[in-house]
């Protein structure tokens, strides 16, 4: 173990989370039994091997799916508030283990410790939300057109929910899904990212312990580990009625097709290409803070990261210079050290993609405003640390149209009315998050109107990232259309049943149809 691991208490965090040097990456409840290949988890922070995890084989998966299916049949009969009580206790454990789990997220994934803690906080928040929800899984009552009939709808648990999550939010996205799915009465099988397998094992252990204490049947929380092939076991499995997948558009397209082939449901939360519009009425200081955090937070590896800033020509130079100046203050380094703002990218492939984007934007005629590059030397031995870069670019550049999961920010100009900025902002295939910085009511309302942003998230005077769990999270167009976490996103984890009850002695038919025998 490196000095960083000692100095920042990683060993202690691993101990508190019961993570071993060698771990099984497949589990139903507390029973870990993976028998596949070994996945090594190296920290992008210092390049050290944190631990090993054994992947899931097809045979392992069969055991998981079968158990999950069987346990679901019992779990669905528990009253929803009783299921909520289990989630409440799980949340108590998250509160107790917030620091070690936040630390492991930071060390295994590379985001700053503050953001690691923030991610665990999102888990805590969604669990709070889910506990309340467990008493509010409401359906509607309708008035029947037939006399002496009652009509209403109710929501029943859906079954086994498959969750595929990405490395960038290795714990929160799982809990957005599971906290809701559990109170809804579903069993969950989770395939976390093979780039962050230890955080998955840590979460599964916490859930399994609490579930066991509450005599929740094994398999309500299950974990599988491995690459896309392991994901395919679930996407092709008819026993899994819903697949919730977070990741790239490319991955989402494959998942959607696999799941559609068997007429399953998919909830997709895919790539973003999020822009901030800065109008002449913007507060420049807030624009800079929101824009810079959006672009460099999590080293540009959020699906909500700010990729483009669209600035009115009348204030273009002023805002551009303020952002470029702010970049000079960014400290890059060990993300566990709270003096640093930006940690490493997840791995060397991500570094390659980052360098490729910088090359491409230059080739297409962009101007580099803040030079990028890979950092070398002391503290940067993992080879994953890069400098956040800014390029002046045009919206139609091919590279600008694509999401590069790295801190590369494209700055561009608009002139005239806010509609022109909205057209640029909407002029990409992705539709996750968007923002406008303005104190002008007309511009703000136009941006939020039917002619405004086409994204799932549209913010005024805050950045594109950092959504709260209370709202439904997700986006339109190639972002996939799914909605997770707050609002009524729970409905996707349940099946709706419409019930009509006749309490008369007659049998009148709907639509007034006569049929006498
Ligand atoms: C993601 O990057 O997949 O809104 C999720 C945000 C976070 C979640 C991001 N609350 O930035």
From TrEMBL:
<keyword id="KW-0560">Oxidoreductase</keyword>
<feature type="domain" description="Aldehyde dehydrogenase">
    <location>
        <begin position="37"/>
        <end position="498"/>
    </location>
</feature>
<dbReference type="Pfam" id="PF00171">
    <property type="entry name" value="Aldedh"/>
</dbReference>
<comment type="similarity">
    <text>Belongs to the aldehyde dehydrogenase family.</text>
</comment>
<feature type="active site">
    <location>
        <position position="269"/>
    </location>
</feature>
<protein>
    <recommendedName>
        <fullName>aldehyde dehydrogenase (NAD(+))</fullName>
        <ecNumber>1.2.1.3</ecNumber>
    </recommendedName>
</protein>
<dbReference type="InterPro" id="IPR044638">
    <property type="entry name" value="ALDH7A1-like"/>
</dbReference>
<dbReference type="InterPro" id="IPR015590">
    <property type="entry name" value="Aldehyde_DH_dom"/>
</dbReference>
<keyword id="KW-0520">NAD</keyword>
<dbReference type="InterPro" id="IPR016163">
    <property type="entry name" value="Ald_DH_C"/>
</dbReference>
<dbReference type="InterPro" id="IPR016161">
    <property type="entry name" value="Ald_DH/histidinol_DH"/>
</dbReference>
<dbReference type="InterPro" id="IPR029510">
    <property type="entry name" value="Ald_DH_CS_GLU"/>
</dbReference>
<dbReference type="InterPro" id="IPR016162">
    <property type="entry name" value="Ald_DH_N"/>
</dbReference>
<comment type="subunit">
    <text>Homotetramer.</text>
</comment>
């Amino acid at each position: 173990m490196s000095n960083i691991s000692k100095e920042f208490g990683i060993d202690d965090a691993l101990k508190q989370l019961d993570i071993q040097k060698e771990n099984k990456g497949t589990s139903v409840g507390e029973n870990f039994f993976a028998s596949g290949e070994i996945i090594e988890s190296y920290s992008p922070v210092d390049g050290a091997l944190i631990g090993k995890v054994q992947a899931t084989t097809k045979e392992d998966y069969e055991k998981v799916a079968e158990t999950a299916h069987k346990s679901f049949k019992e779990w669905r009969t528990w009253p929803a508030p009783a299921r909520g009580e289990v989630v409440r206790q799980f949340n108590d454990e998250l509160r107790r283990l917030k620091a070690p789990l936040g630390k492991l997220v930071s060390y295994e994934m590379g985001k700053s410790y503050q953001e690691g803690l923030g991610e665990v906080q999102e888990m805590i928040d969604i669990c709070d939300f889910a506990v309340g929800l467990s008493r509010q899984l409401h359906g509607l009552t309708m008035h029947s057109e037939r006399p002496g009939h009652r009509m209403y709808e109710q929501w029943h648990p859906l079954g086994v929910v498959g969750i595929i999550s990405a490395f960038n939010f290795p714990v929160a996205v799982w809990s957005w899904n599971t906290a809701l799915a559990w109170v809804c009465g579903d069993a969950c099988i989770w395939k976390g990212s093979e780039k962050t397998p230890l955080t998955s094992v840590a979460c599964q252990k916490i859930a399994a312990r609490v579930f066991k204490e509450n005599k929740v049947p094994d398999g309500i929380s299950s974990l599988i580990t491995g690459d896309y092939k392991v994901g395919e076991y679930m996407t092709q499995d008819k026993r899994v009625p819903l697949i919730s997948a977070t990741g790239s558009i490319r991955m989402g397209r494959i998942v959607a097709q696999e799941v559609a082939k068997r007429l399953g449901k998919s909830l997709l939360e895919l790539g973003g290409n999020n822009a901030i519009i800065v109008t002449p009425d913007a507060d420049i200081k807030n624009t800079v803070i929101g824009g810079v955090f959006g672009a460099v937070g999590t080293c540009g590896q959020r699906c909500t990261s700010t990729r483009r800033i669209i600035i009115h020509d009348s204030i273009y130079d002023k805002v551009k210079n303020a952002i470029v100046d702010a970049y000079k203050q960014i400290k890059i380094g060990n993300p566990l050290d709270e003096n640093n703002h930006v940690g490493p990218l997840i791995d060397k492939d991500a570094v390659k993609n980052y360098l490729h984007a910088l090359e491409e934007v230059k080739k297409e005629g962009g101007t580099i405003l803040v030079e990028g590059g890979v950092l070398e030397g002391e503290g940067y031995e993992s080879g994953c640390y890069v400098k956040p870069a800014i390029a002046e670019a045009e919206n139609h550049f091919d590279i600008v149209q694509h999401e590069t999961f790295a801190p590369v920010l494209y700055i561009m100009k608009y002139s005239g009315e806010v509609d022109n900025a909205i057209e640029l902002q909407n002029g990409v295939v992705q539709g996750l998050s968007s923002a406008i910085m303005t104190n002008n009511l007309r511009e703000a309302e136009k941006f939020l109107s039917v002619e405004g942003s086409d994204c799932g998230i549209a913010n005024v005077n805050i950045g594109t990232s950092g959504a709260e769990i209370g709202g439904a999270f997700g986006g339109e167009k190639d972002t996939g259309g799914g909605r997770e976490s707050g609002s009524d996103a729970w409905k996707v984890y349940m099946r709706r049943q419409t019930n009509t009850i006749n309490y008369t002695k007659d049998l009148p038919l709907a639509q007034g149809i006569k049929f006498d025998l």
